[in-house]
# Entry
Amino acid sequence: MVRITRGSRCKQKKILYLAKGYKGAHSKLFCTAKQQVIKGLRSSYSHRKKRKRVFKSQWIVQINAASNQYDINYSQFVSKLKQSRIGINRKLLAQLANFDNKTFTFLTTQL
# Structure
């Protein structure tokens, strides 16, 4: 019976395609490329979780910078929003602070 070698070559091509863009031997040699692809896929899972934390901290910085113009810091601003039962998330507050200054001013003066 004839031995089929095509299967392993297809797997190698798939790994080398995934390793495209890596530096040096990490994109050319199969063994090192395989290790880097596995490491990259493992990191991509945790980095998807990390991206959410990064965005949330950026929104908090933007809200704090905008609320400091009205002599109120971020924690006081958020606590007053909760006391007055205004349910706006941080992403929307950051967008209001950056793009719609009138609405953000209205929110800070109503508290």
About this structure: Residues 6-110 form a domain with the c-terminal domain of poly(a) binding protein fold (CATH 1.10.1900.20). The two ends are 82 Å apart (CA to CA).
